Amino acid sequence: MHDLIIRNAQVYDGTGLPAVLADVAVAQGRIVQIGEVTGSALETIDAQGLALMPGIVDLHTHYDAQVTWDRTLSPSPALGVTTAVIGNCGFGIAPCPAPLRETMLKNLSVVEGMDLQSLLTGVNWEFESFGQYMDQLRRIGPYVNTAVFAGHSVIRTAVMGEAGSTQAEATPAQLQAMQTLVRDAMDHGAIGFASSFSPNHSGYGGTPMPSTIASEEELRALTGVLGDLQKGVFMMATGTRASPDVMESIVQDTGRPGYISTVLTMYNEGNPDLGPTYYERCAEALARGHELYILTSCQPLSFDFTLKDPYVLLSHAAFDPVKSANVDALPALYRSSAFRDAFRENLRHPKAGILFLGNWRHIEVGPSSRPENQALEGQSMQAIADQRGLDPVDVFFDLALSEDLDLHFVGKFFNNNDEGVAPSLKHPASVITLSDAGAHLTYMCDAGFGLYFLSHWVRETGHFTLSEGIRRLTSEPADRFRIPDRGRLKIGLPADLLLFDPETVGISKPLPRPDLPGGGTRMVRTACGVHGVWVNGVKVHDGQNYIDHPHGPGHVLDHFNA
């Protein structure tokens, strides 16, 4: 008796081979037969006309806090994800000495666009050390297989406290303590080490996130732990400081693979030649035998935001007073001609690596509660400014003020041209991921990147065959991050499965959902064309709803390939 038989499916094994029409049998969490399966099962599904693939492997998520109150890691399982890596960019919550918990959450709330009250209300602290956090994850039982990075900013805060955001040079004793914590995390099953030098990564009250002010020497000392242990991967939100040359040098010194994550690699119509230079530098590194890759987004980088919480604009110097201002003080600030002039000056000379470079065609009016503004939904600031004969900076702030700063805007900043994006997706240095799932909840939800890839890049544009598209979402990311036994449908391997209709698979628009602890609202997407998701042979989502499990079937991943 099998636990599950899926019959008559077009089976894609995740390696890029063409599909085969077959049955798939699962027992005790593993695939036991592929082909013509006889016998019965506790559950049998007729998948005629549907495709069966390995579950999507999402290498770039931020569920570190959410998992402590939501074992489903919603919305990722509903969107086909069966394996997730958390702690990216070096932001997370472990290790964390008890007196620093509020400091850690305040920084996380800003840098990852999370509702602070939800974090303060929701995070369940049963740990201080990294190992205790991993033990808590095992007790929780996440719905998806979960791997955790050792994080630079987390560890810097754990050692230096609030000074981690102001003290650029660590003392020798502090640096040694940080190295000890990186080693401890690796000993307790971390997938690697993650950091950030990104100028977009601000912490609470406008202070920098700790890692962003650290020296390159500190970064090298901490990544050196991976080299000493000869295990783990290195992920970096690079900004401009951690150039491809710096990243390749660290890869060469440690012998461990490195991964670049930055908007500088994304298609940007204002500087369309910049992103390709990153890919070519990585290709040159690969040719020299140095594993350096780019975490590549397949979606337009879009943010839904208000001027009460203008995360996407905080990297502009004019917004420094906004970072520390009470929300009641913001209207006067936004009305100020001095503030607006300072912002205009920033846009005339934008810093490298920031989100908004000043093209007002990329910011549109979102949903509005006022009739006079509802007619503007979907129109860009530039279009409205042209109609009214005004400066788009003034239109932007005046519209926001007309609704007491509650008016939503949608910023479409990068990756907004298919022909500009396609070469990066096809490049041998790219790894398709970068969902940021679990973060920026009030602005966006890119957790459905895999379903978007299958609908847009496979079905609608034909840039990839279905078998190749599936490989790019499953076995390739698993292999790149040294995650064993995931991303393939093969006898003997864990049964992480996604059953879907290739003709209808896709995702919805971002939808607001007030389901965070303390009543906070987040943006989510729902799936189209998904008929079931299984993790280690256990159904976690039926295409419409989550299946209730008191302890999720996902494994806390703590052993990785060399």
Layout of SSEs?
Blueprint: E1 2-11, E2 20-27, E3 30-35, E4 41-46, E5 51-54, E6 56-58, E7 81-86, H1 101-111, H2 116-122, H3 130-140, E8 145-151, H4 152-160, H5 172-187, E9 192-196, H6 216-229, E10 233-237, H7 244-254, E11 258-261, H8 274-287, E12 292-296, E13 301-305, H9 320-324, H10 330-335, H11 337-348, E14 363-365, H12 371-374, H13 381-388, H14 392-402, E15 409-414, H15 418-426, E16 430-432, H16 449-460, H17 466-473, H18 475-480, E17 497-500, E18 506-507, E19 511-513, E20 522-524, E21 527-528, E22 530-535, E23 538-541
Parallel strand pairs: 1-4, 1-5, 6-7, 7-8, 8-9, 9-10, 10-11, 11-12, 12-16
Antiparallel strand pairs: 1-2, 2-3, 5-17, 13-15, 14-15, 17-22, 18-21, 19-20, 22-23
Can you tell me about this structure?
The protein is of the alpha/beta class and 562 residues long. 31% of the residues lie in helices and 20% in strands. The protein has 18 helices and 23 strands. A hairpin with a 2-residue loop joins β22 and β23. α5 (172-187) packs parallel to α6 (216-229), α13 (381-388) packs across α14 and α16 (449-460) packs antiparallel against α17. The radius of gyration is 23 Å and the shape is globular. The two termini are 37 Å apart. The mean pLDDT is 95.
